[in-house]
Design goal:
The strands form two sheets. Strands 1, 2, 4, 6 and 7 form a five-stranded antiparallel sheet that branches. The chain has a four-stranded antiparallel sheet with strand order 5-3-8-9, with no helix packed on it. It has one helix at residues 3-21, and strands spanning 32-38, 45-55, 60-70, 75-77, 81-82, 87-91, 94-103, 107-121, 132-146. The protein has one helix and nine strands, in the order αβββββββββ. The N and C termini lie far apart (43 Å). It has one domain (27-146): Immunoglobulins (Immunoglobulin-like), CATH 2.60.40.10. A hairpin with a 2-residue loop joins strand 6 (87-91) and strand 7 (94-103). It is mainly beta.
Amino acid sequence: MTGRAALASLCASVSFAASVAHADEPVVPPPIGASMQCDHAVQPGRMRCTAEVHVTGDRTIAWADVTIVELPELAAALKGRIGPTDATAHDPTRTTWAFGLVAKKTGQGEARAKVRVVVCEPAIATDAGAPRCAPQVLDVKATLLVGSS
């Protein structure tokens, strides 16, 4: 067995053991998450997409935007950046955007974007009452499907 194969086997064993050891513990959602999806387009033309970022616990979202970083050859972006004021919904724990792409031809490909977000933790007694905020960048992707599936 090569060193690389042994390392892969060891990592798989450790990963499996960790999942078995914690199987009875409750599943805790990650503190921050993001997603993106695009509607299936029957023919070339405008496609509607949505992106969302959310936080859990006592965390809040102070600011967020979405930047399109890669599109397949079959599509073009109407805007490369969808800013905080373009959000279709925003509350302290969730921000959602709707945006359009233009499908230039039939086919399938993957769109990639970055969600940039400033997440704040509540103030603690020793912190002089000020919340602690930090920027995060999350990669999201969606499959674009234009034409018959």
